């Protein structure tokens, strides 16, 4: 009973709020500037919360229909993550003539050093039967006069919490290319004033590619680990289309011998 009453009250409040915002929108062209400035602030606050709801709703309701973090985990995995670029719709789904340091979405940045950019990127909906992630990411590279092209993924703070030298960090990706291409994954670990880097080549003999980084072979001070990020480096990408259907990162402790 209480639940139905609350639902009715929520709908009533929503209808009144929607009517008020509709009225504000209709009067915006003639509203005094001080009042309009105040409304702009309120509108931005409201939009942020609405965008949060839409992000989660699109992620959970978009086909393929999956739950948060739904992907394969190896036994012993103690942390796993799918970046937002593959998880839900991003604010700007497509860009042309992408600049040398362009924020694709929160936590994902594209870098290159071309003098003239002929690079197009866009987020796309995954709809194939074998797809697990709701969204994919596509890069169309035409003429490329630069020396590097990389997609940088900032890992969340949880990736560094409790990280030890006995951990393995694994990157799984589903990558499609028009023609053969070398792709490298570089793990960066900031510990104190230093940054440890480990590079692995992603095998592209099939659509599913994975690499593992064994921290036991690094000189990381595990007591001072602050931040992790991964660079995906694309070698010789000119006149190629690269589609990343999915990308996940996980970690697990190495089996004790």
Task: Please explain how this structure is put together.
This protein is of the alpha+beta class. It has helices spanning 2-27, 33-61, 84-87, and strands at 79-81, 94-95, 101-105, 108-112, 119-125, 135-141, 149-154, 167-177, 182-191, 194-202, 208-214, 225-235, 240-253.
| End-to-end distance | 59 Å
H-E string? HHEHEEEEEEEEEEEE
Low-confidence stretches: none
Structural class: alpha+beta
Number of E-state strands:
13
| Biggest β-sheet strands, sense, barrel | 7 strands, antiparallel
Beta percentage is: 35-45%
- What share of residues is helical? 10-25%
Put simply, the count of helices is 3
Gyration radius, rounded: 22 Å
Characterize the overall form. Answer: globular
**What does the average pLDDT come to?**
87
> Which oligomerization state do the chains in this entry correspond to?
single chain
What is this structure, in a nutshell?
With 257 residues, the chain is an alpha+beta fold.
